[in-house]
Amino acid sequence: MYLYNSATHKKELFTTHTPEHVEMYTCGPTVYHFAHIGNLRSYIMEDVLEKYLRFAGYDVNRVMNITDVGHLTSDADEGEDKMLKGARREHKTVMEIAQYYTDAFFADCAKLNIKTPNVVQPATGMIDDYIHIVQTLLEKEYAYLAGGNVYFDTGKLPRYYVFNEHKEEDLAVGVREGVEEDTNKRNKNDFVLWFTKSKFEDQALKWDSPWGVGYPGWHIECSGISLKYNGEYLDLHCGGVDNAFPHHTNEIAQSESYLGHPWCSHWWHVAHLNTADGKMSKSKGEFLTVSLLEEKGYDPLAYRFFCLQSHYRKNLVFTWENLDNAVAAYEKLIAKLASVDPKDGEVEPAALGALEEQFRAAMDSDLNTPNAVTVFYNILKAPASGATKWAAVEKIDAVLGVKLAEKAAAARQRMAKAALADGGFSVTCQSGESDPQIEALIRQRAEAKRAKNFAEADRIRDALKAQGVEITDVSGGVTWRRIS
Ligand code: AMP
Ligand code: ZN
Fold it and tell me: Do 280 and 38 touch, CB atoms closer than 8 A?
């Protein structure tokens, strides 16, 4: 499998420290608010990656942190504490906020068919481990105490800018306009490992440490959690592209200085989901959450399908129109599969193998999910038995995770029920709706076709289209859906 590695800026053959085993780490959510669907794009793509690694025969140990302390509104050591901000907003304690939004995050993940990692570790549960790492970094002189805080000394590293596609000005942490420079820092990219001088009078969570009562910086939590649960050699580290700098750069700095050897061999970053007018935001405009999608009548899995249609390294623009297009394609696929009889013939191993091979070729090429999705269409068009088609869809959907077979089976059941009631000809709406006027027109068209009056049949199809209704002929009837 070839994967793009952000640390080397090229596609590389994916290899692991231990054969057939992947140690995988994912930066988890900061639980001060609901995740927006941009955050969830990253988690969907990481889920596909994990599932494909398993499909390819690897045993995967996937670890995720929950950031419930230390993350400031800027990814550098500036701005407000995100958790405090959430607690103030909702008049709750930081721990109440953390629990509430952790649960909300996993509820969203379940709706998007995202598997929970083997290990999920809240950052606040590992304070002693961070203290041990910070102490070691001080002993090794990679860290220093200044103004009450412990800083990592980036000047001690032979190489700091690992993801150096960034321009120098992007890296100018602490020299942004309106942000006061931290004069304690020896180098402008030094970062806090442990705060004892809280900038916040109401800092809620504090722990005793050899340097005084305080709390950990954001970056140290991911190093600490990964070192504990993934061990000293990490094969794959994931996150959204905004995590690359400074977060991941700082993780590499502190983990490798602590260990004394290279740490993670493969860095995998998901590009952003943006709105048409720019960045996705939790505070400006519409706050795009899974609940909002549901309120507007969208199936969260249609959003997953929308994400799969784009490559993870390309920015993706979210508009309702783009989502509607994905919904249309998704529903059409379900209808097409529903029109295939799973009991038709036997599973043909050679045909199944060939279809699976197409899927592997797409995924082995830097997890090309848009091409993998087209394999669904190839399966439906293939000169193979119905049983083979269903088996192929189920096999690749175990990775892509849009529940095509489950949805198509439900559609078949609805069609069978309707057919019983209708003496053999079923009319079903793909979204489960019923509309007597539309259904009557569809039946008139079927009558016209039976009478070989094709001009009338076409006229009715066009009339339905003018009403915003698209129809698909399937075996034993017709399915329909609204297109506007
Ligand atoms: P946070 O909860 O802010 O720590 O972010 C959780 C994850 O979402 C991280 O991996 C981020 O890199 C990622 N992320 C943040 N914004 C976006 C976005 N607009 N599109 C895709 N991923 C994002
Ligand atoms: Zn992280």
Answer: yes
Q: How far is the CA of 109 from the centre of ligand 1 (A)?
A: 14
Look at residue 105 and tell me whether its pLDDT is greater than 80: yes
Q: Which helix (H) or strand (E) holds 279?
A: strand 278-279
pLDDT tens, position by position, 43-88: 999 999 999 999 999 999 999 999 987 676 666 666 677 888 888 8
Helix pair 320-338, 369-381: axis angle to 10 deg: 30
Domain shared by 172 and 264, yes or no = yes
What distance in Å separates the CA atoms of residue 309 and residue 65, rounded to the nearest whole number?
Answer: 28
Co-location of 16 and 159 in the same domain: yes
Q: What's the structural domain count of the chain?
A: 3
Q: Which CATH number does the domain housing residue 351 bear? A: 1.20.120.640
Please check the confidence at residue 445 and state whether its pLDDT lies above 70.
Answer: yes
Q: Scanning the structure block, which residue is given the tokens 């721990």?
A: 95
Q: Cβ neighbours of residue 259 under 8 Å, at least 6 residues apart?
A: 227, 232
Query: For residue range 7-19, what is the model confidence (pLDDT) as tens digits?
Result: 999 999 999 999 9
Ligand 1 contact via 239 beta carbon (within 6 Å): yes
Residue 275 forms part of a structural domain? no
Residues 245 and 378 in one domain: no
Give the pLDDT score at 174: 38
Ligand nearest to the CA of 264: 2
Which residue from 34, 42, 286 has its CB within 8 A of the most atoms of ligand 1, so it is best to mutate? 42
**Ligand 2: centre distance to CA 373 (Å):** 30
Q: Are 84 and 195 part of one and the same domain?
A: yes
Structure confidence at residue 182 (pLDDT): 81
Q: Which atom of ligand 1 is nearest to the CA of 273?
A: 20
